[in-house]
Design brief:
206 residues; five-stranded parallel beta sheet; two-stranded antiparallel sheet
Amino acid sequence: MNSLFPIFVKLDGRQVLVVGAGRVGEPKIRGLLSTGARIRVVAQQATEVVQEWARNAEIQLEERSFVPSDLDNVFLVVVATSSRDLNQLVFNEAHARTVLCNVVDVPEQCDFYYPAVLQRGDLQIAISTSGQSPSLAQRIRQQLERQFGAGYSRWVAELGETRRKVLASNLGAERKRDLLQSLASVEAFEAALSDGLKANRKGVAV
């Protein structure tokens, strides 16, 4: 039975630790850059890309061995090393401090998993197999990419603006609910996409 609770977590301003900055660690760090988290990386060696992020002050990089005190005041930790002993050590120390931990590619040492994510602006669709088959999750994401095209990015932004106006209106609660549901329909999206294409064509013609 899958006991995972699917949530989207705000990391803005929170301290996140990444142990390891090689081929595996680099994409994990990259995925954190846009979250607003305060990212500290501890690794004996780091890729050139990770070093560049440090030079640009996007992350804090310490090229040395991990020590348990690195976990002090940390919200979550991602472990991306090739050492089973080190991975186990970080996992144990994180649990002792109730710090959420993800040891890459070791499901039994993960409090959370990285899902395959499809993003269209503010629309995010996350797919997880609870670590059983990341390849399957990626394949499903690729299928969804074809279903949810780039047009969803603009449409979701428009929906958000319209929703705020509807909620601020004097309409009754039931009318507001019905209107918001109709605005989020497939037909409404297709109409919005069609209007957008017409506007683009006019712009090109001018």
